[in-house]
Amino acid sequence: MAAEDISETITALDRALGQIESVSDPAAMATEIADLEQQVSAPDLWDDQENAQRVTSRLSFLQAELKRLTGLRQRLEDLQVMVQLAEEENDASVLEDAVQEAASLRTTLDALEVRTLLSGEYDERDAVVTIRSEAGGVDAADFAEMLMRMYLRWSERHGYPTEVYDISYAEEAGIKSATFQVKAPYAYGTLSVEQGTHRLVRISPFDNQGRRQTSFAGVEVLPVVEETDHIDIPEQDIRVDVFRSSGPGGQSVNTTDSAVRITHLPTGLVVSCQNEKSQIQNKAAALRVLQARLLEKARKDREAEMNALKSDGGNSWGSQMRSYVLHPYQMVKDLRTDCEVGNPEAVFDGAIDEFVDAGIRWRKQQELAAR
Fold first, then answer.
1. Whole-prediction pTM value?
2. Which UniProt keywords apply (predicted)?
């Protein structure tokens, strides 16, 4: 690449970084960081542990984001110096290093640009993910467990903490359903594009005749409810059932009826939690999930009202959105974005960023087209 070409590339990178900075607003970040640092230094911060965790988590996130932005700006300035040096010294090796650094910066900025597209009401929040087996019998239950592992591995790859609230194991293999939380800023905005019906095609390991089987699993993604959401649930609107926590094969996790199932009577929504040791903790966790589902229901009701005013109707989030084919060929393809890869094993091991990024871009295009 000639020096003139790399200079054009740097100009494009500078423009892209400038757009990201205009959305992220580093100055506002610095102001909020200073305010949060004052809160963290307060001696009574941990009197309210939930608020303390929220404050420290937000502070850590903003510090990392600001460091990332300032680091990218510094890398871009260093790149400009590198190109200038290559021109003055007529040094091809330095120019080659500059080309590689420019490519690396482009990749980093592309990934960061996707984050700027997350501007929904709840996009900044943690995510509550529920996976359910659907049509396909034991293969569907096994597929649901594969998807759960996929999302937990994706979270692990990114260093995001997770907490499993509830797993309902199937009789032969796999799971009927599972609910877990991904604790990271923008987890909801990022993972919400994974919501929908997933389809698996493979030679069934549970069919002694070795026939090809198609099975389905559903993924639901909700934002974590915060105190400011004011989702009031009167006691008379819920029924609380307790039962004994259990794992695969029905083996007891403990010997008390600590697991909790809550039914929201007005809507019929049912949630359960069994990962905590006490009934009180499980009830609190189940209520948080119920609040998240009621919050999402309210959002969808508002969205349905808006869609009813449009001639073209609503969207198709509940429809089939991705196929995982293991036989007769190897491919994972997103049916909305046409993004596809030929390595399902890597995808099931958590390598889903390409699909997530494409889904976020696709959703933004749909939103713009609907205006």
1. 0.70
2. Coiled coil, Cytoplasm, Methylation, Protein biosynthesis
The CA distance from 7 to 81, in Å, is 11
Alpha-carbon dihedral sign for residues 203, 205, 211, 214: negative
329, pLDDT greater than 90: yes
Bridge partners, residue 118, by sequence: none
The Cα 151–Cα 128 span in angstroms is: 12
What residues contact 145, with CB distance under 8 A and at least 6 apart?
Answer: 173, 174, 175, 178
- One-letter identity of residue 324: Y
Tens of pLDDT, residues 253-279? 455 678 899 999 999 999 999 888 788
CB half-sphere exposure, 166, CA atoms < 13 A:
30
**Cβ proximity of 141 and 176 under 8 Å:** yes
- Return the sign of the alpha-carbon dihedral for residues 300, 304, 306, 307: positive
The number of angstroms, rounded, from the C-alpha of 311 to the middle of its chain's C-alpha atoms is 31
| Confidence band of 156 (pLDDT split at 50, 70, 90) | very high
Is residue 305 over pLDDT 70?
Answer: no
Strand partners, 180: 129, 164
pLDDT in tens, 121-147: 788 889 999 999 999 999 999 999 999
Q: Within 262-352, where are the H helices?
A: 279-308, 344-348
Q: Contact 94/138 with Cβ under 8 angstroms?
A: no
* Beta-ladder partners of 273: 260
Q: In degrees, to the nearest 5, what angle opens at C-alpha 219 toward C-alphas 109 and 325?
A: 80
Q: Residue 348's pLDDT band (boundaries 50, 70, 90)?
A: very high
- Identify the structural domains of the chain with CATH numbers, from first to last: 3-116 (1.20.58.410), 124-308+317-371 (3.30.70.1660)
From residue 116, how far is each of 16, 73, 76, 367 by CA, in Å?
11, 17, 19, 15
